[in-house]
Every structure is written in structure tokens, then in C-alpha cells.
Amino acid sequence: MAQPVPVLLWAWGTLTALAGAAQGSFEVSVSPEAAVVEHGGSVWINCSTTCRDPGASGGLETSLIKTDRKNGSSWVAFRLLNIKEWASSPQCYFTCNGNIKLVTANISAYRAPERVVLEPLPEMELGQAYNVMCRVLNVAPVTHLTVTLRRGGETLHTETFQNHTGTGPDDITVITEITPQRSDHGQEITCHTALDLHGSHFENSSSAVELKVYGAAQGSFEVSVSPEAAMVEHGGSVWINCSTTCQVPGASGGLETSLIKTDRKNGSSWVAFRLVNIKEWASSPQCYFTCGGTIKLVTANISAYRAPERVVLEPLPEMELGQAYNVTCWVLNVAPVTHLTVTLRRGGETLHTETFQNHTGTGPDDITVITEITPQRSDHGQEITCHTALDLHGSHFKNSSSAVELKVYDLPEEPWLQTSRYIEVGARPLARCWVAGVFPVAGEARFTLSFGGVSLNFTVTTSGDTATAQGEVWSPSPGQHQLNCTVTVGPVSRSAGQSVLVYRLPEPVLEVTESRTLVNSSVTVTCRSPEADPPGVLLQLRDAERVLVSSAPTQPLVQLHLTAGEEDDGREFTCEARPDSGIPAVKRTSARLTVLYGPRMNDSGCPREWIWKEGTEQTFSCLAQGNPAPAVECMKDGVPVSIGVQRQVRREDAGTYHCKASNAHGSASRDVTVQVEYLNIVVLTLGLVGAAAVLTGLGVGGYMYYRSTRI
To answer: Which Pfam families match (predicted)?
Structure first.
């Protein structure tokens, strides 16, 4: 027997499953769920999961021998070989985000009957009861075995063993009683076995044993009928033969029946009638013979049959993974129902088999067979079929429904919504809704995206098993609105919602009493906001360096009073408005102050003195401050001088320049002195002559000293 998962693993799986239920569900499945393997053979077991955690890991707990492991991103498979346990239950498990889930497969080992033996039969006396015994040796599993005893083409007895206990091989004995008639003489008794293993069918038979029947004692006679039990198609015909062992020459016989008799034939100890247009579903004609004044009767049983008019498999809905569904098959207008077998299959696997030995009534009936399935991912695309078999003592009528394809869908995860929690009236930010783990393919996901009860336009993209819808969110009116996303694949729907606040924040108003003002004038700067929704705005008035003044939440405006100075010219003021409700939004309005003042001249713009060298390139520059910008004129000796123009310096450029700056608000003056440095040629010449004379004197003196020394 297969060993259970160790207690520690079981406990861990139980506790972590409870602890992690809120972190996202996942499923574990095994394929095949039920496997039948020849004793000593092998089978692949595939464990798969819907877990999206990249770190998910799985395995197989079993006492069987595991080899040849294979695995993918969400599955792992093991080959189990040399399977000699008659029943085992390996357990697939996966760990996902710290949670463990288990699922169990059922493996049954089988052994086809080693031998089917029919016990020898003695020579039999007509009309006496005898046992027919069949032994089926070393077969497993016995619960899947059917044993049938036949006389010629007629079924004498069928036995199944659904209630058999034990999983290993066993020897089975089947016994039935027969009372031989004359017509049985020379017939062959056979024993047949069938081992039905979910799509695989193993049959075997015994050797035939011939019946040898001998007559009754002197003075008695018997009446027999052939066939004793007849199956006739509804509206068809059959010959019924009545015979006797009576040796009296005047013996006479006949057939009592409500059926139509035609074409009588007879011999010295028999009489036969053809019964036609048989429309009674069950009838019992009686053969009789009168022998020496004694009458004896024997009854035949005639059943009319009708093969199923139609076999209809009810259409199946699109199915959600892991949910239970009924599969319904209708078999229409069939008789006799007691001989009917209905089998529902998924692909080559038998889901359910039903027989109707206890059905009451002899006429045709409509039969409904229902079984429940819980679809897994591996079932997607599989075909369900319904098969009927009408077994009529040697004749076998089969029929099947059209196949119905299984469509299995799954959305193991809830969708995710991504958008801003705050949206301004008129804005159109993007909203994204995505869901992972879509099965069978992400392209089958259908989205519904709405905002404030109004459907949004969106586009859908897919990547792997993830589908994403993206669209613009907007609303013409402020207030709290709900963003909803619903994802549907097949019959499965998942939804997510997010509350979004749509707000109105108008541009703030910035007012300056005189945006162009004279220096030393009073100026008032006002910052205010029109009505917002939700109400309550925080105001700030600032310049480029700092916050100048802030408002309280209910204060409608803030003001700054200042006396305009030259330094305020070009100063920029900004009015900022922020919602008091905590919405992360801000609006700004800016204005610049212009201060008007007369000219002012200083050394930085107009130096009082320039020192230039003759022959160099220089630019005469004199600038003045003022608003508006003053015009500057410079003159030397009553002649205007070009300002800001580069020129070559001459000696005559030296002197005093008179500069004047003026604008609409006044004027300012300044004298600028220019000195020109140059070389004096006369002085240079005299210097050179003097230097030469000194050198000549030194030379003569030296010569005279040298000469006197040598003498």
C-alpha cells in the first residue's frame, strides 16, 4: 500500500494553507487522476499548479520508485516504475508563497486472468438440475471483472464483483444452475471474462465443454420449447419449436399465444410455428403436448427489443476550473432497458457506467444518466461522449452520441487597478486594469471598465497569461466616483474597484495694484482663489526666494504691502493654491513688478578714470542704471564721443570726457578722465648718446692701464 505523506508535511500544509488563504489562491492538479497499470509496469505522473510565484516548488510523495524527473515553470512530472503495489495513492504537492496544497492520484495495478477454467460437466439426464462452475485464476482488480457463462450464443449467467474486498489478485469461482433440455444436447458451454480498466479491455475465455443430454425414464414424457428465451426486434418474427419425448403415436401438440402464428411445420414429436409482427414487448407463448391423455405445458419467453432511437449528450456550459458540473446523457426510446449499459467517457477514460437490471416495465423508455465532473486544466479541449450497448443474448447493439468538447476556464487571481486617486475636472489620466494567470489563453479575457457608472473606451493587450486593459478616466463633475474593472473569461468573472475623487481647483488670481510704479510708491500684492470643489484652499504668496505670506484654510485671500524700491524692479511674485483636503495638487499664477526710477551712475558702469597705452585697441564705456534704461551721451571738447565702440588709442584721446545719462524720470552726470601713455623720442636719444660716451671712456681707460702694465 502507498504510504501517506509524512505527518510533518501534512501539518505544515494544513497550517500554511490556513495562514495564507488571504494571500491569493492557487490550485494543484494531477494527471492522470486515476491510472491502471500492468503489474510491474510504469506510468508518468504529472503534477501542475496555477501558482504564479516564481519560487514555487513541487514534488511527489510516494512509496513507489521514482525516476526520470521532468519539470517546467508550473509543473513537475515523475516516472513511477516497477509498480507492484496493487493500489497506491501518490500525492502531488506544491509550495506557493509559503502555503502547501496536496492532491492525490490513484494507481491500480492489474493482472489479466492467468487462466479461465470451466469445470468438466457430467453426462446429464433430461430435466435434472446441474451446476456449471467456472474458475478465473489470479486476476486483479476483481472489482473490474465480469464473468459470463454462455450456452452456444445464449447468455446463461453474468456476474460482476463491485463489492469484492481486497486489492490484490484472487481466484474467482462463478456457479450457475442449468436444467438441460433435449435441444441442449450437443450445445457448448463456455466461460468468458472481461477486465474493463477505464478504456483498456482485456478478454479471455475457457475451452468449450459439450453438453450431453440423455432421455427420461420409461413412462414419463417431457415437453420442451426452443428457444426458451428469444429476443426479437420490435415488429419482427421468430420460429418457436415445441417438442416432446412422448412415444405414443397419437400424441398431439400446439402453441398457445396472443401473437400472430403463421407457417406451421411439424414432425413425429415436434411442431413449430412462425410468430410474426411481434409488437408485444414481453410475451409468453406456451407449448403443449397431449400424451396418453396427459397434457404437459412449457413456456417460452419472448422479448421485443428496440435499439436506442437516439443517444443525446446534453450541451455542456463553459466550465470554471474546480467547480462541479453534471454531465447528462439521454437514451431515447430503447427496450428492454434491463439489458442496457450506458457509459460516459472523457477522451479514452471512462467517467461513469450505469446498468438497469432493476428497471421495471417491459416497453421502451427514455433513460437519463447523470454523472458529476470537476474539470481541471488538463480537461480543456477533451471530448465527452455517451455510449450505449444493448446486450441481447449474443446480439450486441451499440450507439454513441455526438462528442461535446469541454471548455475549461480559470482566473486564479483578482484583477489589479492602477490610476490616480485624485483627478481634476477636465483631466484625462490613464487607468490600467490587469489580471494574471488567465486560462486557457489571455486573449480570451473580456474587460468591462467603467467610471462613475459610465463605460470607458479602452484597449486590451496581452503578454503570456496576463491581459491588460487601458483607457482614459475623466468626469465633467467633481465628487467621489467609483472606478470598476470586471474581467471575464468563459463563465468566470473577477472584479476590482477603486474610489477616485474628482476635484475642481481653479487657477488662483494674483493682483498687483500698480504693476508699473515709481520708486518709493506703495504697492499691494493680493493672492486669492475662486471657489474650489471640495471647498477649502490654502494660499501662499511667495517670491523667488521665500514664502512671503500664507493663509489659513478658511481665509479667502492673502496680501502683501510694500514700498517699491529699486531692488524690487523685476521682482516676480507667485500665488499658489493647494486644496485643504490633502489632495496632492497645486495651481500657480505669477506676476512681475516694474519699478520706475531716474538715472544713477557709478564706478561699476561708468569708471571715472581710464589709463590706456598709445596704439592699443580700447573701448570707451559708460553705462547708467535706471528704469526705463537711460540714454547716455559723452562729449570731449564739445565733440560727441562714440560709446561702446572699439578704436585705436591716440595721444589726443587723453583728456576729460563729460557724460550725461537721462530718462523720463531725471538725469545724472559724470566726468571721466582718460590718460594715454606713450614714448618720448628726444629723451630716449639723449639717453642713448650719454650711454655711448660712458662706454667709450671706459674702453680708453682700460687700454691705457693694460699698456702701462705690460711696459
So the answer is: ICAM1_3_5_D2, ICAM_N, Ig_3
Please give the C-alpha separations between residue 295 and each of 228, 258, 288, 290, 422, in angstroms, as whole numbers.
19, 20, 7, 4, 105
Residue 201 confidence (pLDDT): 80
Q: Which residue has the cell 540714454?
A: 631
Range in 46-55, 214-223, 493-502 the model is least confident about: 214-223
Is 409 in contact with 381 (CB distance < 8 Å)? no
Q: How does residue 24 score in pLDDT terms, banded at 50, 70 and 90? A: low
Residue 547's H or E segment, with its range, is strand 547-550
- Quote the pLDDT of residue 217: 41
Beta pairing partners, 197:
200
Alpha helices in 177-264, H assignment, sequence order: none
3-state secondary structure 117-151: EECCCCCEECCCCEEEEEEEEEEECHHHEEEEEEE
The sign of the torsion formed by the CA atoms of 530, 534, 535, 541 equals negative
Cell representation of residue 682: 628726444
Q: What is the C-alpha separation between 496 and 413, in angstroms, rounded? A: 11
Cβ-contact 128, 222 below 8 angstroms: no
* 494 has a pLDDT exceeding 80: yes
Which residues are 192's β-sheet partners? 148, 205
The reply to whether omega before 141 is within 30° of 0 (cis) is: yes
Strand 325-334 relative to strand 301-305, pairing:
unpaired
Beta strand pairing call for 408-409 and 319-320: parallel
HEC-encoded secondary structure of 48-89: EECCCCCCCEEEEECCCEEEEEEECCCEEEEEEECCCCCEEC
According to the model, what pLDDT value does residue 213 have?
Answer: 84
- The torsion defined by the Cα of 634, 636, 642 and 644, in degrees rounded to 10, comes to -70
Cβ-based burial of 206 (10 A; exposed 0-12, middle 13-18, buried ≥19): buried
Compute φ and ψ for 378, nearest 5 degrees.
Answer: -65, -15
Report how far apart, in Å, the C-alpha atoms of 103 and of each of 48, 130, 416 are: 10, 52, 29
Q: Is 208 helix (H, G, I), strand (E, B) or coil?
A: coil
Find out whether 423 and 501 touch, Cβ atoms under 8 Å: yes
Question: Do 433 and 445 meet the contact criterion of CB atoms below 8 Å apart?
Answer: no
> Is residue 353 pLDDT above 90, yes or no?
yes
Give me the half-sphere count of Cα atoms (radius 13 Å) on the Cβ side of residue 307.
11
What is the Cα Rg of the chain in Å?
Answer: 57
Give 101's Cβ-side CA count (13 Å radius).
Answer: 18
Give the model's pLDDT for residue 23: 42
Measured CA distances, 255 to 1, 265, 430, 611, 681 (Å) = 61, 12, 92, 159, 173
The runs of H, that is alpha helices, within 146-199 are none
Give the separation between CA 648 and CA 568, rounded to whole angstroms.
Answer: 40
Q: Which amino acid would we find at residue 309? A: E
CA pseudo-torsion sign 453, 456, 460, 466:
negative
Backbone φ and ψ for 155, nearest 5 degrees, come out as -80, 120
Q: Is the pLDDT of residue 292 over 90?
A: no
Q: Tell me the whole-structure pTM to 2 decimals.
A: 0.56
From 103, 82, 87, select the one nearest 35 (Cα to Cα).
Answer: 87
